[in-house]
């Protein structure tokens, strides 16, 4: 049985750190060709002049962050958990070929749902850093998450 | 020469509507296998029980929205334009196989930069809808954009 996480399993200040993941130039260009076809993401020569070399699409960075969350942490929300969307998505530094990314998820708020006693709201900060410790993505997200005790 | 867009080329309330783009089950599963490997995105049978069938990763929806912006509108920001990040990213309805997506970009605010007379700040709402007119993604984003007149 999966070791699901419920509202009661989280504490404000708690941090989970993912494994790492290295990004190649080929993957940066492949993603961008499909989803963000701009020269700084798809053409190393043009990118050299624009951004000092190829940089990943911000949406690629976001997608890689999701992969770190799913595959690189013990992320296992209980059935019924539901993302409410994201706030303050930022890409302070670009991701470049060869960069190694790591995600830290920090619980920054927890509150019981006012309308549903069997649920709570969790707010997390997602911080993605490169091998130099520089932040390449930051975002804040809230989700509805089931409570373990639902009697009553 | 590219027909670049400068601060002066935008007006609050102005809307640009993209072409459309249809999403296949194969693409939903391919994206999710790489970036968001959860059964509702990768396994049609498991997804039938969880979400009434396969649904796209929200990050796939975001990436497809970027593609609609770049390839489906006359998006051509002047050199020097720089995204400041996103606020209020929401996925009110999931994207399903066969859905046809369209993006509307609406200018909701424009203001000159206080520190840099050669720049302005533009705030856009990005609304992605399916073929039923249902919103599958909404977000608000601000960007720095060069002004056409930079003398002085």
List the defining traits of the structure above.
homodimer, 152 residues, alpha+beta, five-stranded antiparallel sheet, 5 strands
Q: Write down the Rg of chain A.
A: 18 Å
Give unreliable regions of chain A as ranges: none
Strand order of the largest sheet of chain A: 1-3-4-5-2
Structural class of chain A: alpha+beta
Instruction: Specify the overall morphology of chain A.
Output: elongated
SS summary, helix count of chain A? 4
The fraction of residues assigned to DSSP E strands of chain A is 25-35%
Q: What characterizes the major β-sheet of chain A?
A: 5 strands, antiparallel
Oligomer: homodimer
Q: Whole-Å distance between the termini of chain A?
A: 25 Å
SSE arrangement of chain A, N to C: EHHHHEEEE
Characterise the protein shown here.
The structure is a homodimer of 152-residue chains. Chain A is α+β, with helices and mostly antiparallel strands. Chain A has four helices and five strands, in the order βααααββββ. The first copy, chain A, has helices at residues 25-35, 39-42, 44-51, 58-72; strands at 15-22, 82-90, 100-112, 119-129, 135-146. The first copy, chain A, has a five-stranded antiparallel β-sheet, with helices on one face. In chain A, a hairpin with a 6-residue loop joins strand 3 and strand 4. The radius of gyration of chain A is 18 Å and the shape is elongated. The first copy, chain A, starts with 14 loop residues before the first strand and ends in a 6-residue tail after the last strand. In chain A, 30% of the residues are buried. Chains A and B meet through helix 1, helix 4 and strand 2 of A and helix 1, helix 4 and strand 2 of B.
């Amino acid at each position: 049985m999966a070791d699901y996480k419920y509202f009661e399993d989280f504490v404000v200040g708690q941090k989970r750190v993912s494994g790492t993941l290295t990004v190649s130039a080929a993957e940066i260009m492949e993603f961008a060709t499909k989803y963000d076809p701009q020269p700084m993401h798809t053409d190393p020569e043009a990118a050299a002049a624009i951004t000092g070399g190829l940089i990943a699409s911000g949406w690629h960075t976001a997608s890689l962050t999701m992969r770190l969350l799913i595959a690189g942490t013990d992320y296992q929300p209980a059935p019924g958990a539901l993302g409410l969307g994201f706030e303050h998505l930022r890409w302070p530094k670009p991701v470049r070929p060869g960069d190694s990314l790591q995600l830290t998820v920090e619980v920054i708020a927890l509150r019981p749902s006012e309308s549903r006693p069997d649920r709570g709201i969790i707010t997390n900060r997602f911080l993605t850093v490169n091998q130099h410790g520089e932040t390449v993505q930051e975002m804040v997200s809230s989700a509805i998450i089931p409570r373990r005790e639902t009697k009553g």
